[in-house]
Each structure stands twice: as C-alpha cells, then as structure tokens.
Amino acid sequence: MAKEEFEALYHRNADHVYRVCYMFMKNPSEAEDSLQDTFLRAMEKAPPFKGEDHEKGWFIVTASNICKNKLKYWFRKKRTGDNDRLEQIKHQDRYEFEVFDEILNLPVKYKTPIYLYYYEGYSSVEIAKLQETKETTVRSQLARGRKMLKKTLGGEECEK
Question: Model-level pTM greater than 0.70?
Fold first, then answer.
C-alpha cells in the first residue's frame, strides 16, 4: 500500500477507531496505543476492502478485538482509570456527557452494541454481522443495555 493511500485510509477511519478504543480502554493514552496497534495491523494485513462500509466494519471489529486482548492482561486490572476521562471526546452538553459516561460503565456485551447503534449509526442487522452473532441477540443486548442505562440515569422517575 502506498503512503498516500495509507494516509487517506487513516484519515477516513482514525476518528471512529479512536472512539471505539476509548470506549473500551477509558483512558486517552491507552486508546491512542490501541488506535496505533489497529493501524499497524492494517499495514501488516493490508486487507482488500469491498467498500467503505466493509472498511469501517473491519476497523471497528479489529480495534474491539485489540482492546479486548489488552484488557485481559493482568496488569491492566490493577491500574486505575484516568480522572480526566472523556476530555478528548467532544460533547456539547452535560447530559450527553453523563449518558456516554454511563455507557462506558456498561458490561462489554451491552456497551459495544449500544455504542455501534447510537454513536456509529449501525443497524442491529449490521451489528450482528460485525459481531458474528444473531440479530435477535443484538436486539436483546440493546434492550438490556437501555434498561441498565434507564436505571442508572433515573429514567423510571422521568416517566412517572
């Protein structure tokens, strides 16, 4: 892959790959490391993409897998999160910041589909393909994740 092609690939995908990495790592420096590892893997593998959707999907799945592997390391479990988390992600109001912070605290199996659905704009069918799971499983994960968010954000009180 030529340098210009790789730079274009990086500029097209770096933003959403960083957000995926940050969602998992909850720390700007570790998210940047994971972003770099994702693009190193792209350089090594040089996968042929069938289009922009395939390209974006490949990067999201690869970044997710890299982050999950990093989180398995024993030393990672002993470390604490960064107090300035989410400082590099731009949010316009306090409520949106609070919602995104709660999404980060969800278990991975709920956090990933919710992020992909609401922040990246994927449908449940597309998420199922990316995660190699059933569409009904993704819908259940979305519903359970929303229910967890509703409890932590006080949504039940708002409905009364």
Answer: no
